[in-house]
Amino acid sequence: MQGARGDFNANSSALNKLSADLHDVPQSVVVVNKALMQSQGASSLADALRNVAGITLGGAEGGQIGNNINLNGFSARTDIYLDGFRDRGQYYRDTFALEQVEVLMGPSSMLFGRGSTGGVINQVTKKANLKESTEVSASATTNGLVRTTADYNHPLSDTSAFRLSAMAQNGKASTRDQTDVQDFGLAGSYVMGIGTPTEITLSALIQHNHDMPDYGVPPLNGHPVTVDRNTAYGLNSDHTNQDVAALSAIVSHKISPDVVLRNQTQFNYVRTSAVETAPNTIGTVSANGFTPLPVSAVSSLPLSSLYVRGQSHDRDIRDYSIFNQTELSAKLNTGSIKHDVLVGVELGHDGYDNQGYYRNGSCNGVALNAPSTVAGYNDCVPLVNPGYSAAGSNVASQPGNRAGGSANTIATYVNDTMTLAPEFKLVGGLRYDRYIASITNSLNATNAPAAAKNTTLPYAQQTVNFTSVRLGGIWEPSAEQSYYLSYGTSFNPSLEQLTGTTGQQNLDPEKNRSYELGGKWDLANGNLSLNSAIFQIKKDNARSLIATGVYELDGTVRVNGARAGATGRITKDWQIALGYTYLDAKIIQASALDGTLGKVPANTPKNTLTSWTTYKLAPHWEIGGGATYMSERYASNTNVVQVGGYTRWDATVAYTQPKYDIRLNLFNLTNKMYYDALIPSDGGRAVPGTGRTALLSVNYRM
């Protein structure tokens, strides 16, 4: 029964750096596979990650667009991977080309290099195989979103195959205004030498997104302002256009049954063209123009008397990277000790170019921007019923700062899983990284007008040398159970995201440490997998604000947590996917000016619970559903804006046949008003989640 089509349980990882058997990985790993995603009607990476307790979503933020994710209380913005390679481009990721999504919890720089404070997210793409198959799907929602996907796999010989996947969608992504999307994508892979000592895999992903950005609603009186869920403050001309290309080549050669040499090269390119208007500040309007209310102020004015100042966030961004990894894996013995050794070398280059634009407008005939500044405040609209489609649409766009950056990575690493006895294993690894980064800004602290209060660096260069460590002990008293204790480190260079402000070019990297104690169990003949763990993640010498836009290494962030999960079949007809995470997160050291000492890190709820279950009622009928619970959290590290907790219920019913499925998914059954994503800037904005929505899909297999 294990491994059958439709199983939620996935007991292995596609990451070559990890043991294929997750019992031999001394860290928590959550795998969201294709069967679970299809059962839930998940079509985006964000949808898939709702199955991972401990993950929260962020919206478009400052210079960042695309999937902004917090994992275990820390940003994972640059910790998203595609087939084991960093996928740092700023775009919204789809699931049409994915076989599964893997989340490795805790600092993992020994395996992946810089970043990975809270963990890493790896997208595993579909690969060609020797089984002929064709799968076509079509779906529509009550919001008007129409989507179709296709997946075609064709063997070309006994040792080669070709696979092509495609996606197109059009319509409103949620019940909220201003969420129209027009996206399409193609992904292909060609594999030759299947089953032979030398296997070559070529793959490509091409995707185009034409979406409308959603910057949510601004705060008032310490919470997101209480307006209708569908209220949006942008313009109907706002858009985010993204063109994505990812190319990969893998050569794997089995030198002997116990020694494999593997080389992989991946090139990623993402261009983003954005014209976006965000709700910046709530205030009043008079003959003197717009007067903002401080975020921390308490206002008793009626909502109908208040206005929102809009701010343009227009930019043209290019992200690209090319990386190469060469790895040798070997099984060998030294006396009675068995070794699984991985030795690797990584070379890589990242590039970043961001041309910003601004639209300086007026409110009630009074300019919103001081002379010679590029703040981009472009309009003011009523807080209630803003009529976003017309406001500020005639304000001219002007070029602003052009930010550039590049980085080179040279790394070497070794990891050894030692079997001391059938029940005991030790895992140890070291990685040395040399990270060389430089950035430029055309508008900066030296040439910007004084009124702009610019602390951006005109130029900066930084070289970081860092050695990461991974240690773990595993006790496996039987094949069905595993217990582990592990320690890991990671580092975050100040120019990690190829941006920076005054002082950052001279800062050492932030250093992160993790301790984890956990267990993994298999029940029901391996069809049901359970896991639990307690852990601590601590970020030392964290960057802390000492002056406007100026930072020093004077902070400490600590997260004590616990997690538990269960995935698989309780009976032949009953499946579950459950996850719970508890995070006690706190900023335990910070500068006085920073104002975050003793606060909870942004977008970090204390409790998150994800659940999904399906039951086969009859040979061809299936019902299911689940709840997502998240406790209250804060929109920024200052804890001024609090966003309440919520429980969202979803359900599904499906009619299944060997050749096709007809499925109905119902999202947010109770029409709960909740906030899905948080944005720290401007005091803390919050993006409302979708209202009650139905999705009808047909999936046909040939």
UniProtKB/TrEMBL annotation:
- Keywords of this entry: Cell outer membrane, Ion transport, Membrane, Receptor, Signal, TonB box, Transmembrane, Transmembrane beta strand, Transport
List GO molecular-function terms, semicolon-separated: siderophore uptake transmembrane transporter activity; signaling receptor activity
Q: Which CDD domains match?
A: ligand_gated_channel
Q: Which PROSITE patterns match?
A: TONB_DEPENDENT_REC_3
Gene Ontology cellular-component terms listed: cell outer membrane
Q: Which Pfam families match?
A: Plug, TonB_dep_Rec_b-barrel
Q: Please name the Gene3D superfamilies in this protein's record.
A: TonB-dependent receptor, beta-barrel domain, TonB-dependent receptor, plug domain
All copies of domain TonB-dependent receptor-like beta-barrel, residue ranges: 225-669
Q: Which GO terms describe its biological process?
A: siderophore transport
Q: Which residues form the TonB-dependent receptor plug domain?
A: 22-120
The membrane topology term of the UniProt record is: Multi-pass membrane protein
Where found in the cell?
A: Cell outer membrane
Protein origin, superkingdom:
Bacteria
Q: Which family does it belong to?
A: Belongs to the TonB-dependent receptor family.
What protein is this chain from? Answer: TonB-dependent siderophore receptor family protein
Organism this protein belongs to: Collimonas arenae
